[in-house]
Specification:
This protein is an alpha+beta fold. It has helices at 2-29, 49-54, 61-70, 122-126, 136-142, 148-151, 188-195, 212-226, 242-285, 287-295, 300-336, 345-371, 375-380; strands at residues 35-39, 74-89, 92-102, 114-117, 131-134, 155-158, 161-169, 174-175, 178-179, 183-187, 202-207, 238-240. Helices cover 54% and strands 19% of the residues.
Length: 382
């Protein structure tokens, strides 16, 4: 029973963690697989870094234009100026909605894809047009029950400025607790004109696969030059990358794996002690049989191997039952909760292999006793 519970526990926890890994990787991919983000702020900070970053000079148009002109490794550059504002259509009012000023390259940096109409184009930005692209969730709430194609050309108001809807984005879901379907995008230049241009912006920069590291170095050089950072001073900006989240997430799941292994190890040890007791009883009950075999010429190592194989099979059988139950728990979690638990071949091999190893380890003492029984005494045993 200890083997069954131990393997089931390990399989279940590993399935949950693997499911979370897959879900997290998918969500991180929504940021753009080969995109970095130039920003005044660091995505993940510790200690008193916030105070140092707060006093930095804002990232603005000078940095954006320098990146557009000098970053030869960039395949797309998109500014991202954000503000929380009220968006209204008639009597429908959405407060504190994220309004983003950007350009047509935003989709190439991981901003999603268009479901109806079109996204922002060059002329929209150059002429500072009052046009807006709605995320799917915003379109549903502003125009409930209406198909997205029927929303095109309709008027919305953002902080009392009128905008014409030119597109609706595909639904994207949530990432790290953020609703990716709850924002609107307007031309970057219109954002600066109507909603204010003094705030710091972020710049999303996409590149070819395998060029993220080189792009990061190139952007660092460009930004230090344009912001006139002396060689002896550290960077006064941040280049945020997805692997920062992946590294943090890896540390968290590493701790969970440690807990899973610890719990599983305790239960497997308990199960191993049970197997050792069973095998000791088996040796006692089969003492006469062992004596007969030894009298007929069976070697010690043959008896030893026989009991080791038996204990390993008993333990592996418990591991197989535990694996099946672990599958069941993972399936129930996938159906009953938002967790996308997934049982991998590696987890199954780990459970079965570890349980067989426990049987081998805890069966060695009974096997040694059986192999070293005196044949004469064993034959006299009643």
């Amino acid at each position: 029973m200890g083997i069954v519970i131990g393997v089931m526990t390990v399989i279940s926890i590993v399935a949950i963690i693997d499911g979370l890994d897959a879900s997290f990787a998918t969500q991180i991919g929504n940021l753009g697989a080969h995109t970095v983000y130039v920003d005044k702020w660091k995505w993940i900070n510790t200690g008193n870094e916030w105070w140092e970053m707060r006093n930095r000079k804002n990232v603005g148009r000078a940095e954006l234009e320098a990146i557009e002109q000098e970053a030869t490794l960039a395949t797309a550059v998109a500014p991202m100026a954000n503000i929380r504002a009220t968006v209204t259509v008639g009597d429908v009012e959405l407060t504190r909605l994220q309004v983003r000023g950007t350009n047509g390259s935003y989709l190439q940096t991981g901003g999603g894809s268009v479901a109806a109409g079109r996204f922002l184009a060059g002329p929209d930005v150059e002429l500072s047009r009052s046009v807006v692209v709605l995320a799917a969730g915003v379109a549903d709430r502003l125009f409930p029950g209406e198909p997205w194609d029927a929303v095109l050309g309709r008027k919305v108001r953002i902080k009392d400025h009128p905008f014409t809807v030119i597109g609706v984005l595909e639904r994207r879901g949530r990432m790290l607790g953020m609703d990716l379907d709850s924002n609107v995008s307007i031309p970057y230049t219109t954002f600066l004109r109507d909603l204010g241009g003094k705030r710091s912006i972020a710049v999303a920069v996409a590149t070819e696969p395998g060029q993220v590291e080189a792009l990061t170095d190139q952007l660092t050089g460009i930004l230090r030059q344009v912001r006139r950072v002396p060689p002896e001073r550290p960077d006064d900006f941040n280049i945020n990358r997805q692997d920062q989240f992946l590294k943090l997430y890896g540390q968290l799941t590493g701790a969970l794996y440690g807990v899973a292994v610890g719990v599983g190890l305790i239960t497997l040890i308990v199960g191993g002690i049970g197997i050792m007791n069973i095998m000791l009883v088996s040796v006692t009950e089969r003492t006469r049989e062992i004596g007969v075999r030894r009298a007929l010429g069976a070697r010690k190592r043959t008896i030893l191997l026989q009991f080791l194989i038996e204990s390993s099979i008993v333990s592996a059988a418990g591991g197989a039952v535990g694996t099946g139950l672990g599958f069941g728990v993972a399936l129930i979690l996938s159906v009953a909760t938002p967790l996308a638990a997934a049982v991998t071949p590696g987890a199954v091999a780990l459970g079965l292999g570890f349980s067989a190893g426990v049987g081998l380890l805890f069966g060695s003492w009974p096997a040694w006793r059986a192999a070293n029984l005196d044949p004469v005494e064993a034959l006299r045993y009643e």
